[in-house]
Amino acid sequence: MKRLDPFLPIVGVVGLIVVWYLAVWFQVVDPVLLPSPTNTFWAFWKGMNGGALAFDFLKTVQRTTISTLIAAAIAIPLGIFLGSSERLYRSVEFIIDFFRSTPASAMFPLFLVLFGVGDKTKISVAAFGAMLVILFNVAYGVMNARKTRLLAAKVMGASRLRVLTDVMLLESLPQTFIGLRNGVSLALVIIVVAEMFIGSTDGLGHRVFEAQQLFEMPDMYAAIFAAGALGYGLNLLFLLVERRFVHWSGK
Amino acid sequence: MGDTMDRRATALRQTPAGPTGSIPAVERAHVTIRGLSKRFSNVIIYDKFDFDIPRGKLISVFGPNGCGKSTLINMIAGLIPLDEGEILFDGKKLSEIKFGYVFQNYREALFPWLRAIDNIEYPLKVMRVPDAERRARSEKLIAHLGVKLDLKRYPYEMSGGQQQLVSIMRALIVEPEILFLDEPFSALDYEMTLFMREQLQRVFQETGTTTVLVSHDLEEAVYLADWVLLLSRHPALVADFVRYDDARPRTDATLSEPEFIRVKAHCLDVFQREVRKG
């Protein structure tokens, strides 16, 4: 029986599909609003194989990746700098927490004025949101570096710079990866929302919105699943990278 | 009682004999502490504290809770600044000597991102010793101590005792003039503690490095020591400095020998007296 344990996650998936089929079969919901799983999967398959969905999917991947990279490139060095002095971080903590709590979607009009209608606005709002999430995680990672470990390095004669590069940086990595995973999830949310509204012509958000407008329900569900798969995949990717490079995390 | 006090006085004050006479190692001070003062907020931990640490001996530091045992070695090892006073090693400053320090919390003192062997070699890396020489020195140390551990593993893949052994090796790799250990075995279970005492005794016998061990276990303090430094409640004073010179290697049988029992009982007396004072 234990040998079947790795297959447990499939139980939920199969269950969901069965419930879905039953709902369609007994017409619990209007058939126009809820296509069958087969139709949806077919729409997904066609869309991803040379269809418009594949193009929109890649567009969203591209925007999410760029905004996360920009966010990380700013947040990681800045987080290390701010975190290396607790007093420094405390003096800017309120600003970081305030903007971190501000819904990034509320920033769209401002960024539209700054960057106009186009990719720049979408990417910069997403980067802004993700950056704050990564920043505060990196800073906390550095600040919470084990005091004993810092002392150990100091006792062995390591200079301040050495302590930073050999100890603090590595100490902050597990927390940095938490920030990166949360950051990329947030970036994806912001990008998809941005693609739905502000004068967009492509991206998964646009695909979902357009399919809904045209009442192409299988296409809409397919695009939603594509977005879900993307979010899950990005999270998984960061987890795998973390396990590979931050092997000591949680041990 | 008076007997030990006299012996202590002799050990500390005796000056080198004639030019040809070889001086017993114990009589040469390695570390001289003069006028040491330290306070934490309003509590005076040390007030004009003077002490000499003899060379090539293992000194155990024992005393009531919060008397400043760890504070003392942390100040000697430069982890905590002194308020006043001076600590010299053969007349040299701390920055001019090589020393090793072993923390109680090995889990947090080792670097989990480095393999055990790289942890051990890390101090040499800080000193910019070339790769090949680092390897040669760690191999020499491993052979010297007769360590049979897979040092390619990461610290979190090892038992507590193995991790602390790695910490001790990391402290020894620089060939320190003096080794400090802050309650090194108190986070280990009893079986591992017994094993690690033997390891430490062996290290000490092999290297003869001046060693200062803070312990909260009187049996351990006496068993491992050449001298037991008994501190009073803060402001800490030397309550007694007790010689214990049974031959090494000491074994389980040592624990039931009359001399061990006598010294331990004496230390306990002094300790109880100091505890009651507070």
Give structural notes.
The complex is a heterodimer of chains A (251) and B (278). Chain A has 251 residues and is mostly helical. Chain A has a domain at 65-197: MetI-like fold (Orthogonal Bundle), CATH 1.10.3720. In chain A, 78% of the residues lie in helices and 0% in strands. In chain A, α7 (147-155) packs antiparallel against α8 (160-196). The longest helix of chain A is centred in the C-terminal third of the chain and has 37 residues, at 160-196. Chain A is globular and about 70 Å long. The model of chain A has no long low-confidence stretch (mean pLDDT 92). Chain B is of the alpha/beta class and 278 residues long. Chain B has a domain at 98-176. In chain B, 39% of the residues lie in helices and 22% in strands. In chain B, the strands form two sheets. In chain B, strands 5-6-7-3-8-9 form a six-stranded mixed β-sheet, with helices on both faces. Chain B has a three-stranded antiparallel β-sheet with strand order 2-1-4, with no helix packed on it. In chain B, a hairpin with a 6-residue loop joins β8 (227-231) and β9. The longest helix of chain B has 20 residues, at 258-277. At the A-B interface, α7 and α8 of A face α4 of B.
